[in-house]
Amino acid sequence: MPTTAPYSIILFDGMCYACSFVVRLILLLDRKKHFRFAPLQSEIGEKLSSSYTITTPTATILFISQGNCYTKSTAILEIFKILGGIWLLLLIFRYIPLRVRDKLYDWIAKNRYKLFGKRTTCSIPPPRYQDRFLK
Length: 135
Description:
Blueprint: E1 8-12, H1 17-29, E2 35-39, H2 43-51, E3 62-65, E4 68-71, H3 72-83, H4 98-116
Parallel strand pairs: 1-2
Antiparallel strand pairs: 1-3, 3-4
């Protein structure tokens, strides 16, 4: 079920406070509406992650763009690239070896509930952004 939609898709852990905060930040910054979102725990999130054979999807962010699926630190850098502007400065992190970037990402992902907390239910998008969430 790989997608070549006219927009990019960000699949995130809907139970994670930090992940939900980042999604809200991207919603504010994405004036051109490049991104659509779905929690990994949702039906569409599960379908999309399994179609890209991601075995432990809630351990990572998934970014789907032009038929490609990016995970971990690469997903974040691809999102920065599309956001453009000052966010392009963060692409300097591409020069850090992937193994090192992903090790740091894995550590944060493993400890995200301890560091930022965990929701008891998936977050609900604000009404003005509901059209940006896949169902």
